[in-house]
Amino acid sequence: MVLIKVYRIRLITDHTLVKIAITAKISPDVSRTESEQTVLKRFRGTSGPHNFDRLVKLASDAMGFNDSSSMNQPRFAGDVLCVEIRGPRCPRLTLVDLPGLIPVNPGKAVQGNADDIRIVESITDKYIRDEMSVILPVVNSNVDFQDHGILEKARRVDPEGRRTFGVITKPDRIDAGGKSEADWFKLARQSDDAFFKFGKGCHVLVNRSNQKTQAGTSSAERDANEENFFRDEVWSEDSGENAGKTNNWHALYQTDQWGVRNLVPRLGTLLYKHTLDQIDSVRTDIETRLANYDAQLEHLGLGLLDPSKLASILSKRFLEISKTTSQAVLGTYRLDPSFFGIGEDEKSSRYLRSRIRDGNAAFDAQMKAKGHRSEYKVAPDEEPPDNFAWADFFHRFLKETVGTELPGNFDPERTTKLFHHYSKPWVELSREYLKLANRHCRDFLLLVVNRKLGKDFPDIATNF
Question: Are residues 249 and 134 in the same domain?
């Protein structure tokens, strides 16, 4: 099965090289599993210009597109094959070769399943929406122009055609003199009544036929055949039913709108002008990114210093934390006005001693109200009444729990038991009081650590 993928081709000028060197790697799609992404990221391949097909096959194998044992083998992938071409005469340029869109026209058979269509549409939309890119829709003229969905996509993302340059192929495969040829010729000349407007112009190329490709026709022969097609005023004898007919495409011969030899300088000029148009946008983008990097560097702060200086600064900050904590415990609040400033939340745990005293007052009130068993009826600091009924219970308890003591005496341990019985609620009340005090202390520490370390040591403050 033939893999239809995305190629990102980066050309780099390298005067240290004598010959062209090609390297490739795979940028996996985010839809891949983590393990698949790890495997694909490890792929590295190298080749020369003459064995590039072998490099592509290796990449296809890595992505699982040439596995004949798989019945559910995909036809399309969101992975990107990143090809880097280095050489002494390579222009500094990045090209993205996208898969062709699958026609989905009413009354015609769909040439791909729903997943194929979705993947290809998504890949194409991702790249052509980039305002920095130049869109080069390549459309072959031997099919109905309505089958070329890329034209409608280009119109949608670039309605004024400011960054769209059309390339028409296979003009030698069309019926000469017919309406279809006339429509495509109008498109090539960008006539007023052309069915699409390429804001950056249009170009026409003649491809190798399948037979010539299989026969290994050289680039020089291809270029010569292409020039012959546009130079001749009538179709050649080997043009089948078109032989001898008037060649309307000959009208382009005196222009620069045909052939590979004219396409290269046209694209160079297009790229140069497009770059000039994008300078302001590029400058704004650079300034925005620099501002983001500056913000990140400021966030890193002291993280850029060497460990010994960091340790010294961190020690100084911890000393500040210790002093501020001592003031909070003592309730002085005067030696660190930046932390204990007026206008801060006075009810927060920042003012620790005040919060602890509030807790003490609440604990005192709780102890008076609930610090004794309900049957005693007497709070800890109240005098028992003269007719206190529990006095008889005390006497009876002491009498019924006599041990080894002499008559008329009693063991002090008995009063301890009575006290434990009386103060049983103290345990829960004390536990709640300690929880509240602990929460105030912890909240205070979070505040002081974040205030003193949050800017320059955010990881320590966050994970405290």
Answer: yes
Residue 108 is assigned to a structural domain of this protein: no
* Cα-trace Rg, the chain: 43
Tens of pLDDT, residue by residue over 12-53, are 778 888 888 888 888 888 878 888 888 888 999 898 888 888
The answer on 289 and 392 residing in a single domain is: no
Crossing angle for the helix pair 426-453 and 352-370, to the nearest 10 degrees = 170
**Packing angle, helices 390-400 and 412-422, rounded to 10:** 130
Do 315 and 424 belong together in one domain?
yes
pLDDT, tens digit, for every residue of 71-83? 555 555 678 888 8
Angle of CA points 24, 30, 31, to nearest 5°: 115
Q: Which residue has the tokens 């839809």?
A: 31
Is 138 among the domain residues?
A: yes
CA-based end-to-end distance of the chain: 56
Q: What is the DSSP string of 349-403?
A: TTSHHHHHHHHHHHHHHHHHHHSS-TTT---TTSPPPTT-THHHHHHHHHHHT--
SS3 (DSSP) at 292: helix
DSSP secondary structure string, 312-350?
HHHHHHHHHHHHHHHHHHHT---S-TTTS-TTS-TTSTT
Residue-number span of the structural domain to which 207 is assigned: 129-302
pTM for this model (two decimals): 0.56
On whether the CB atoms of residues 101 and 153 are closer than 8 A, the answer is: yes
Query: Is residue 113's pLDDT more than 90?
Result: no
How far is it, in rounded angstroms, from Cα 414 to Cα 412? 5
pLDDT for residue 4 is more than 60: no
Q: Render 88-137 in DSSP notation, one character per residue.
A: TT--SEEEEEPPPPPP--TTS--SS-HHHHHHHHHHHHHHHT-TTSPB--
Q: Are residues 262 and 404 in the same domain?
A: no
Q: What is the dihedral of CA 169, 173, 179, 182, to 10 degrees?
A: 40
